[in-house]
Amino acid sequence: MFSRNMKICFLADATMPHTKKFVLYFVEKHYEVHLIVLQTDYEEIPGVNIHILNCNKYTKYLKIFYFKSKIRSIINEIKPDIIHSHYVIKYGFLLALGNYTKTILTAWGSDVLQEISNNLLYRWMAKFTVSRSEYFQYFGGVTRNALISLGAPKDKMFHSHFGVDVKIFSPIPKNNSLKKILNAEEKYIIFSNRNFYDIYDVKTLIKAIPLVIKKQSNVLFILAGRGSELNNLKNLVNTLNLTKFVNFVGYLNQKEMVKYLKIADIFVSTSLTDGGVPISVLEAMSMELPVIFTGHPDTEENGMKVNVNFLQFGFGDFKTLSERILEFLDHKEFGLKMGKNNRELVLKKFNYKIEMEKTEKVYKSIIEDYFIGNQ
Known about the structure:
By secondary structure, the protein is an alpha/beta fold. The protein contains 15 helices and 13 strands. The strands form two sheets. Strands 3-2-1-4-5-6-7 form a seven-stranded parallel sheet, sandwiched between helices.
C-alpha cells in the first residue's frame, strides 16, 4: 500500500485566485506541493515550491524545445506522485510535450469551448494534449462532452468543482463601511467582476445601464476586473454619459472582493461561455446575492433553477438584462428570497472543502492503482 504523503506537481497560472485556492488545500494537508508557472509577476503562495519557466532569451521556435526540456528536468528532480495541469491549450499542452504517467488534465471551460472553436491550431493542440493525458477533471456536462469529442475516454473522467470557501464568502457579518467610502450609502449596488475581455462581454452590461436609469436612477454599477478591453469599456461609459453611474475599481484580491460583495444588491455575469457554473457567480450566491447571468446548459445540471436561483438573459441582450435588473430593484423581497436559496445551494453542492476532498480521493486512487500495478 502507498503510505507516505503525496508529492504533487501542478502546472497552472499562479496569478489566478482559483489556482492559489486549489494548491493551498493540499499544502494544508501537509503534502509536498510544487507549481510550474510561466509568470514572474505572481504573489508568493505559502508552502508552495514555485518553478518558473523563464524563456525570454529564446526565439519563438526554440521555446517549445526549452519548455519540454525544462519541465522534464523539474519533474525528474521532484519525482511527483501526481502531475496535474490546468487549462488545456496552455499548461496542459506544455505538459503534453513530454510523456508522463499519473497525469490529470483540467479543462476550465473556455479552453475547450471557445478558444478552439474557430482556431485549427488550438484545436490540434487540444487534441494532442488530450491524447497525452491519462485522467480528466471537468466542471460541467458541456465541458465533459467537449473533452470526449477531443478523445478523452469516459472512464478516465471525474467531476469536481473549484468550490467556494463558504466561511470566507459569507453574508455574515454585514459591513456597509465601503458604501460610505464610495459615497453610495443610499444607492442600490449592481456588481460585476468578470474580467475585461471580449469573452466576458461586459459591454452588454454597460449598454443596459441607460435603460435601467430611465426608471431607477438611484443606482451604482461597480465593475471589477482587468483586461485588454478596459479602455474600450471606459470609452463606452463616457460616450453614453454614464460616468456618475459606473465605478471601475480594478482587479480585486479575495479580501477586497468579499468587501464589495457585501455591499452589493445584485450580481451580474455577462459571460459568453463558462465551464459549469462560474466561480464568480457561486461566490456571489454564497453571499446571499440574487444573480443575473447568461446561464449555460450546465446550469440546470448543477442544480440551479431560473427564478429560484437566478434570472437569465440571452447573449448580448442588453434590453432583457435591463429588465432583469429592474425586476430585482422593483421587487426587493424576491431578490432577498433568491439570495437565501443561493446560499443554501452553495452549502449543499459547491462547498470548497467537499469538492477538494473529491479531487484528493481521485489522486489517492490513481496512486494506489499505479502502485499496485507496478508491484
